[in-house]
Design brief:
This protein is α/β, with parallel strands linked by helices. The protein has one domain: Acetylglutamate kinase-like (Carbamate kinase). It contains ten helices and 14 strands. The longest helix is centred in the middle third of the chain and has 24 residues.
Length: 307
């Protein structure tokens, strides 16, 4: 942990309280040992006073997960960074229905940013704590086979197939794969793909125990304007209803659709968490109360256990 987080924990928790936290985590560590957890990283949604601080906190969570026996896979996009580079290059960014219109030059920019900037930054942050992380692009070993989503959007892709072999080998060798969401078609043409969609597809392909999205809200609400209406547990059927009636809309739709599809196709649970909360991954995975919104095929009813 960072020096700042160490100081705050020491000041707040007595030795007995710190021991109690560790004991509370023990059954979850046992339950999730050797299980795959796919985490969608979004830099704008993470805790910390600065981007570097946010990334450091996230890296600590991933490393701790790995050290206690889980198998984390990190999936990331880089929309803000792509927009920033396009602005510097004097290129206009155009969006349609929330998707970036991507011509040949723009897809090259996306490749540079995702594989050449964001991915190495995440890998380096994790590897501060040891030789854990390996950066992978969807182009590597045809990890992500893609096709054009809409001709009017240019080189924006849909996931056609995930070939999880390279990820499984890395996990078997106890590495943490960090995946940049560029895919390719049969001719080798690159496509920029929504990272939420890719995270769900990878979770399905790996038979993940959990799929986790870090966002800038505390979870899903039944009433958008009412913080007290936070949905702690839900099912794919309930989420279908909330999307159909417009309760879930806009940028949350790709995340929720991916959660729904993943849980219906073998992923045990999906989670939507507020990434602005320090160590939110650990709070969700290793405490009785959990945090955020959890999606599963059927609501889990055992008292005190919702992770």
């Amino acid at each position: 942990m960072s020096a700042q987080s160490n100081v705050s924990l020491t000041a707040v928790l007595s030795p007995e309280s710190r021991a109690a936290v560790l004991i509370e985590a023990l059954p979850y560590i046992r339950r999730f040992a050797n299980k795959v957890v796919v985490v969608k990283y979004g830099g704008n949604a993470l805790a910390g006073a600065s981007e570097a601080d946010a990334l450091a906190l996230f890296a600590e969570d991933i490393v701790l997960m790995r050290l206690v026996g889980l198998k984390p896979v990190v999936v990331h996009g880089g929309g803000p960074q792509i927009s920033a580079l396009m602005t510097r290059l004097g290129k206009t960014t155009e969006f349609r229905d929330g998707l970036r219109v991507t011509d040949a030059e723009t897809v090259d920019i996306a490749r540079m940013v995702l594989s050449g900037q964001v991915n190495p930054q995440i890998v380096a942050a994790i590897n501060v704590h040891g030789r854990f992380a390996v950066g992978v692009s969807g182009e590597d070993a045809t990890l992500i086979t893609a096709s054009a989503k809409d001709p009017e959007l240019g080189f924006v892709g849909d996931v056609e197939k995930i070939n999880p072999g390279i990820l499984q080998r890395l996990l078997d060798d106890e590495f943490v794969p960090v995946v940049a969401t560029i895919g390719v078609d049969a001719s080798g043409q690159a496509y920029n793909i929504n990272a939420d969609t890719v995270a769900g597809a990878i979770a399905e392909a790996l038979g993940a125990e959990k799929l986790v999205y870090l966002t800038d809200i505390e979870g899903l609400r039944r009433i958008v304007t009412d913080a007290e209406s936070l949905i702690r547990q839900t099912t794919p059927d309930e989420l279908d209803q909330l999307m159909n009636d417009g309760t879930i809309a806009g940028g949350m739709i790709p995340k929720v659709e991916s959660c729904v599809h993943a849980v219906r196709n073998g992923v045990k649970r999906a989670h939507i968490l507020d990434g602005r909360i320090p160590h939110v991954l650990l709070l969700e995975l290793f405490t009785d109360s959990g945090i955020g919104t959890m999606v599963e095929a059927k609501k889990f009813t055992t008292p005190g256990v919702v992770s």
